[in-house]
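User: Working on a comparison across species. This one is mRNA cleavage and polyadenylation factor CLP1 from Triparma strigata. Can you predict its structure so I can line it up against the others?
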Amino acid sequence: MSAFKSVKLTLLPSSELRLSLSASSVSSQILSVTVLSGSAEIFGTELGLTTKLPTSSNLPIFTYYGCQLLIHPSEVEVGEPGPENEIIQDALSREDDEDIDEVELEGLEDAYIAAKDGDSVITSINIVNTHAQLEVMRDTARRSLTSTNEAAKEEVNPSPRVLIVGDTDSGKASLMKTLTSYALKIGRQPLVCSINPKRAVGGLSNVEGCLSARSLSGGFKDAAYVDSFEISSASGPGTSPLTFFYGSTDLKKNEGFYKELVERMGESLAKREHACEEKAATSPHALNEASSGLICMASERVDAASVKLHLHTIEKLRINVVIVLGHDSVYNKLSKKFVDQDKVKVIKLPKSGGVMKKEAAVRSASVSRCARSYFGVDKAGAPGRSIITKPLMELDIIKMESVAVGGTMLPVGQAEVSTNVNLKKLDSLIQNSIVGICHPKAAAEYNELGSAESIYKGSIAGFLHVKSLTEGDGEGGGNIVFMSPCEGTLPSNMIVTGEGNLTWVNG
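Assistant: Here's the predicted structure for mRNA cleavage and polyadenylation factor CLP1 from Triparma strigata:
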């Protein structure tokens, strides 16, 4: 057996190991954890035998009953446990009191075990209690949907529709994943939604500047919990999330347009929910989704204007449970708005003591990893799943601008339908930019009916990465080389970009 650098740890019941990873580890998953004995979980989902550490900068490994863990480089294949497994036997023979504070593993910047009676236990219990309250609502909604009593059917018993509110790096995504994991463990199928354009979540909103939603059937894609979701729809397996393109990570760029997209998201989710409710009596799948509800990650705005923005979201997404993470001002203001009614419950949960601000390099690595996952890039600089070359003259490139910028609607003479967005035709694109592909139906409506709204409020068929541009030969306008998430022709030749000029360098 070849020696390798690793660390063995023993966690007592109801304790939490907190790891801080470097940008290189977030980007490439160079560390793994092997469970030697007992059980542990990350974001509410139990660890397998050997699991690559998730691509998140701050990771909590929590155990209810105690466990022994081995943290080691991912390149080392530990193998199945047994008396002949030299790596595991060697780890088990070590002393249990290795000092985690003195661990030096590539990709691991800091690590410590939270106190058994500290905030890790309090946080975990709060989340479990919150999950239990959501389960009561799901059971009530399920009974209402399956009741043969006409009076019971008319009584409104909605499934939980949760909005998670908090500032940057407050733990919103972690809480969303944990609540989702707990629901999936007992067979629920919640819709998961992100209306936070500042955060890329692989498998949900793979690039920044998006609002996305999808249904979950099998939970996180694999035991590595890398933010990827398995999906399904009310009628069977699906292939992609519902995505609307805001085109920027800054809500202040065009808050009016953002609110339009939130309203559009609400309309789409309401149609899906209604369809599931209609089929609930005959379809177990539809019944499960209709009663499982929604878990949504809000934007990161927590300034003076954020309460109005959250109230708009609560109305348009028909939210009935608001969870505020560690922000007294927002919690108090939202609580006062709903103090005299029981339609919306406002809950305050403390931020975990393990939550820390992400460094710029770590945040960039996380965005890059999501993009690489989406385009099928194995490592930085690799070509990805598919490369598509398109003549520039065959593309309709449209930029969504705020009205203040002074863009012009397309085509000339078209009536303006939004006070927030103008469409402007571009002659080319910026290298390394991320652009959206208009859905074929939206492109057809725009070309045939002159409906600009179908472009900026329509769902996106997918995204492309502008790999390179070549100049024309005098007769044409040159070519654009795109990196695509899949092989084949583009769904449409209408490309949309936003004011944020979202970019990603594959290097």
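For your comparison, note: Residues 120-349 form a domain with the Rossmann fold fold (CATH 3.40.50.300).

User: Helpful, thanks.
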